[in-house]
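re: that complex we talked abt at group meeting.

here r the seqs, copy pasted straight from the sheet so there may be weird spacing, ignore it
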Amino acid sequence: MITVTVRFFAGHRDIVGRAEAQYTLTEGTTLGQLWEQLIAEYPRLAGYTGRLLFAVNQQFAQPATVLSDGDEVAFIPPVSGGRSDDV
Amino acid sequence: MIEPFVITTEPLDPAPLVAAVQTPDDGAVVTFSGVVRNQFGGRPTAFLVYEAYAEMAVPVLRQIADEARARWPIGRVCVHHRVGRLEIGETAVLVVVAAPHRDAAFAAAAYIMDRIKEIAPIWKQEHWADGTAEWRE
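got the structure back, here u go
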């Protein structure tokens, strides 16, 4: 088994109710699988599927990325509106 | 010594950044200031709260500057982004780009700001004048 830390920001933190959490996972678990597990735990996160960025250890990563023990994972909700009329 | 890429709770001042990026090779320094407005889509805003994944945002800002440098002949770049509660009229972000010529400086500053809004892990929570709040996403 491996243990990873998940950081929650902005709307995700509001849904989850905390800024970070530890998850113990089977070896070979991917980022995408962890996201599915989080959705099962917090169904309101499901609306973010397909419009978030993934990061492992402060680097952008892909859903297929396999997690390692001690990784810091962040599921990054859409940032700052993202529209050019916003600023 | 001005750090080029910074996430800070302190008020932002463009003057030290302009001084920091300019070298004798540069004929242009472009400063973009992103400022908190009093409304969005006609709905009155009371104030904004910005939040960042700071340990990741700083390297992402550096990466974005490198992307701009690969596209245009520019010199030094500074990007400072504020977090925490910001009042109407306060500066949320400064993008300062020096270059030998203005076309590259303008283009790079616009590109950097667009990319910040695409990928930098920095979020904005709008606090409306009616007392409600929502993350802009």
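couple things i noticed - The mean pLDDT of chain B is 96. The helical segments of chain B are 14-21, 54-71, 102-119.
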